UniProtKB/TrEMBL annotation, chain A:
This is Peptide/nickel transport system ATP-binding protein. It comes from the Bacteria. SUPFAM superfamilies: P-loop containing nucleoside triphosphate hydrolases (SSF52540). Belongs to the ABC transporter superfamily. It comes from Sanguibacter gelidistatuariae. One of its GO terms (molecular function) is ATP binding. Residues 6-262, 301-559 form the ABC transporter domain. Transmembrane segments: none annotated. SMART domains: AAA. One of its GO terms (biological process) is transmembrane transport.
UniProtKB/TrEMBL annotation, chain B:
PROSITE patterns: ABC_TM1 (PS50928). The lineage of its organism: Bacteria, Bacillati, Actinomycetota, Actinomycetes, Micrococcales. It is found in: Cell membrane. Pfam families: BPD_transp_1 (PF00528). InterPro entries: MetI-like, MetI-like_sf. This is Peptide/nickel transport system permease protein. It comes from the Bacteria. PANTHER family: DIPEPTIDE TRANSPORT SYSTEM PERMEASE PROTEIN DPPB-RELATED. Keywords: Cell membrane, Membrane, Transmembrane, Transmembrane helix, Transport. The keyword Transmembrane applies. Belongs to the binding-protein-dependent transport system permease family. One of its GO terms (cellular component) is plasma membrane.
Length: 577, 316
């Protein structure tokens, strides 16, 4: 029997004063036990607040703020070193050398003012694996081993000069530099694009299996766990509800919560949030015009040849500008959902801003319900030439729901004031009428009536997004642009919001332009899909067709990158059944 | 890069011109007669001799229109001539050149002391694991800001000059005479440095890259010196320009309390004597110091923070 790389026994963690830490009521982790064998990948899955991240941070001795272990043991490696009683100096010898940490958000996890090579070399210097000059050379080798092109040049660069995927590769290099027994990967790819996510997880898997490092993978994404983990530990409210071999837990979940999570995970379930729309204007391919002409109705939104160019500061000639949106054309018909999918920088959000007249177009037209509402010319940010009355009318008939409900709600307003704001801006109704309308909207998004007086900070992420949706619906818009409306939310909350959006679309005949990088979500909600890359629409068609018979290579690679696709079909069927 | 510096120098020239013009407007065009003020200041008994006044008026060009006066003075200022003092008759530039080195020594020492003291308090407040010690350290800066400079000066004089005879109480003789004024000047300044630096160090301590560094096995000391310090220095650098302003203002009080000759003392005496050309010259020179310090700060940003490129900064 091999000694486990990590054994966690009845771990309890609390936040707050140490004196009161003995009170079990303050615990956020209530007696968690699991182990990770050398070379094994164990996934800790659960939603926000489940204690998965707290457990992981306890294991590397980096609990934030007032967090502290109140009970249990964490034993590391063959010598069964108890980490819960380790003094600070001993911890310094363990971290980086025996336990590596791959953090969550590569955008902020590297020191912005230090060179990449120095940041990799630092871990080698701390643990005296190399002299100064050796460490420098070794850092370049490490950068090469994590798949960075031109590693010697990369070593001299700063974090902001690298993409998110490259930064995460650097962080993996740092975590594995001293060949630790255990790597803790805390949501290592949740901030990355789907294709990058796959390559980064591939790299992590490949390197750790080469060194024989055990991996504790923290994730909220069951599909990632399904693809990557040998065993899964499901956490809820600081307790383990289920653990076992991945195929068993996900293929035949014993606990109701695991089943709930599985049902909510978009990439693991085939549930459509709405029935597939009829064939009306299904293939609204705008270039041909033939099908569009055959449809009697005017599309709510018709975009043609839309182009947006950004000037770069200090650029010259070829480098002076980038074409963020390049000759984009599509139509959206009433009551339907068009999804714009693509990775960061594909131009999908800029397209949405152009549609809403929030930025000016260099070329092309945006027609809303047959009327030209293109904001053109100028080129300098907002403004440009446009009829002010027409723009105000466009603002009334369109609405936008942002990605991050933590940032899009004014923190000093109450929920009622937030929802009332569009009504006030457009001077609609008396204050009594507006009050009724706000109450009606709160009811519509299924928030309790009493929430009207609350502030955003008192609300959960899902509740905040409901407020944002209510605000978007205040003026009874025809077109709602949803910019990644669920990507900041937990899976089960995500499912609820998607259901709410689908229900509202049916009851109000809303038309959605759904911006997303998550193809699994898109599959559940969209009637038509436009795949964007480098500012261009590379493929456009009905959802079913795009998913079942993608024409473009890029679309195929996006589909293949959806986590959960590594799983054998047998267990997938089990999930659906 | 050259374009950036050229633009900044042009801006600096604009600021100097504005300082000159505004001080001209205030000092010369206020509804009072500068010549009577001068003669009054010179004689001190309120009697103004009309003939002498007319002579003075003509020699200063006050009989001309305001625009002619302004253009003539601006033209002279551009050639480095800031006029002559009314009370002493010396050239304004000479007076400033004599007083400036003394204040520069004082300011440099005070700035160095305040940076060391301020950074020390800030670093210690992040370093310590004891919540109480941190509270104590963080309560020092508000006290330092609140206590008046002259009071600190008097206390230091009382203790170190009159009781222990360690440092001279007055004068400009040697390094020893510099110590007490510099400490007096440095205390409120170090409080500002400590406040800004402690705040930005606490912020930096809570970042993800600090967690990454700790996960590498780095000690608290290493994390503070290698990661937190440099990131926290960037916001602190911004206030350096303000600090230099505080130094000039503080030198007025400190040089008076310690009876030192210097820039601040010159400000105090020439304002009291209503020596208008000297006051205007001092305003312009103070503006020049400000402009140069801020230019140096702006040029230092990209050195400390690779994310800032000079081209990007001019567009924001």
């Amino acid at each position: 029997m091999v000694a486990p790389a990590l054994t966690v026994t009845d771990l309890r963690v609390a936040y707050g004063s140490r004196a009161r830490g003995t009170d079990p009521a303050t615990d956020v982790v209530h007696g968690v036990s699991f182990s990770v064998l050398p070379g094994e990948v164990v996934a800790l899955v659960g939603e926000s607040g489940s204690g998965k991240s707290t457990t992981a941070h306890a294991a590397v001795g980096l609990l934030p703020g007032s967090g502290h272990v109140t009970g249990g043991q964490i034993l590391l490696g063959g010598d069964a070193l108890d980490l819960t009683t380790l003094p600070p100096r001993a911890w310094q010898r363990v971290r980086g050398a025996r336990i590596g940490l791959v953090p969550q958000d590569p955008a902020v996890a590297l020191n912005p003012v230090a060179r990449i090579g120095d940041q990799v070399a630092e871990v080698l210097r701390i643990h005296r694996w190399a002299t100064r000059s050796q460490a420098k050379a070794r850092a370049v080798e490490i950068l090469e081993s994590v798949g960075l092109d031109n590693p010697a040049a990369r070593a001299r660069q700063y974090p902001h000069e690298l993409s998110g995927g490259m930064r995460q590769r650097v962080l993996i290099g740092i975590a594995l530099a001293c060949e630790p027994e255990l790597v803790i990967a805390d949501e290592p790819t949740s901030a990355l694009d789907v294709t990058v996510q796959r390559t980064v997880l591939d790299l992590l898997g490949e390197l750790t299996s080469r060194i024989g490092t055990a991996v504790l993978l923290i994730t909220h994404d069951l599909a990632v766990a399904a693809d990557r983990a040998d065993r899964v530990v499901v956490l809820k409210d600081g307790l383990i509800v289920e653990q076992g071999v991945t195929a068993d837990v996900l293929g035949n979940p014993q606990h109701a919560y695991t089943r709930e999570l599985l049902a909510a995970a978009p990439s693991l379930s085939d549930v459509r949030r709405r029935p597939v729309a009829g064939p009306v204007a299904a293939a609204a391919a705008p270039e041909s015009g033939v099908l569009a002409a055959a449809v009697p109705r005017v599309p709510v939104l018709a975009v043609s040849g839309l182009t947006k160019v950004f000037r770069l500061p200090g650029g010259r000639g070829q480098d002076a500008s980038i074409t963020a949106v390049d000759d984009v054309s599509f139509e959206v018909h009433r009551g339907r959902t068009l999804a714009l999918v693509g990775e960061s920088g594909s131009g999908k959000s800029t397209t949405a801003r152009l549609v809403l007249g929030l930025t000016s177009a260099a070329a092309g037209t945006v027609r809303f319900d047959g009327t030209d509402v293109t904001v053109s010319g100028g080129g300098r940010g907002r403004g440009g030439r446009v009829d002010a009355a027409a723009l105000k009318e466009l603002r009334r008939r369109t609405a936008l729901v942002y990605q991050n409900p933590y940032a899009s709600l004014e923190p000093r307003f109450s929920v009622g004031q937030i929802i009332d704001e569009p009504l006030r801006a457009h001077q609609i109704g008396s204050s009594a009428e507006r009050r009724d309308r706000v109450a009606e909207l709160i009811d519509l998004v299924r928030l309790p009536a009493g929430y009207i007086e609350r502030r955003p900070e008192e609300l959960s992420g899902g509740q905040r997004q409901r407020v944002a949706i209510a605000r978007a619906l205040a003026l009874d818009p025809e077109l709602v642009v949803l910019d990644e409306p669920t990507s900041a939310l937990d899976v089960s909350v995500q499912a609820q919001i998607l259901d709410l959006l689908a229900g509202l679309q049916d009851s109000h005949g809303l038309t959605y332009l759904f911006i997303s990088h998550d193809l699994a979500v898109v599959r559940q909600v969209a009637d038509d899909v436009a795949v964007m890359r480098g500012g261009r629409v590379v493929e456009l068609g009905p959802t079913q067709q795009i998913f079942d018979h993608p024409v473009e290579e890029y679309t195929r690679s996006l589909l293949a990158a959806i986590p959960g696709s590594h799983r054998p079909t047998r267990t997938l069927e089990g999930v659906i059944a | 890069m050259t374009g950036y510096i050229a633009r900044r120098l042009l801006q600096a020239a604009g600021v100097l011109w504005a300082a000159f013009t505004v001080s001209f407007l205030i000092l010369f065009l206020l509804p009072s007669d500068p010549v009577s003020i001068m003669l009054d200041a010179a004689s001190g008994n309120g009697y103004v001799d009309p003939a002498k006044a007319a002579e003075l008026r003509a020699s200063y060009g006050f009989d001309q229109g305001p625009l002619e006066q302004y253009l003539r003075m601006l033209g002279r200022a551009l050639t480095g001539d800031l006029g002559t003092s009314i009370s002493s008759g010396a050239k304004v530039t000479t007076l400033i050149a004599q007083s400036f080195p003394e204040t520069l020594k004082l300011a440099a020492l005070a700035l160095a002391l305040s940076l060391v003291l301020g950074a020390g308090i800030a670093t210690a407040s992040v370093w310590t694991r004891s919540g109480r010690l941190r509270q104590l350290l963080l309560s020092l800066p508000p006290v330092g800001v609140a206590v008046p400079t002259f009071w600190i000066g008097l206390i230091l004089l009382q203790l170190f000059s009159f009781r222990f005879f360690l440092f001279p109480a007055v004068g400009n003789e040697g390094f020893a005479s510099l110590v007490l004024p510099a400490v007096t000047l440095a205390i409120p300044l170090s409080a500002v440095v400590a406040q800004v630096l402690a705040e930005s160090m606490q912020t930096a301590w809570r970042t993800q890259y600090v967690e990454t560094a700790l996960a590498k096995g780095a000690s608290r000391g290493r994390v503070i010196t290698r990661h937190v310090g440099r990131n926290a220095a960037i916001p602190a650098l911004t206030i350096l320009g303000v600090l230099v302003g505080n130094l000039l203002a503080g030198s007025v009080v400190v040089e008076t309390v310690f009876s030192r000759a210097g820039f601040g003392r010159l400000i105090q005496t020439s304002v009291q004597a209503q020596d208008i050309p000297v006051v205007q010259g001092l305003v312009v020179v103070a503006a020049l110091v400000f402009v140069l310090v801020n230019l140096a700060v702006d040029l230092a940003y990209p050195v400390l923070d690779p994310r800032i490129t000079r081209t990007a900064r001019t567009t924001t």
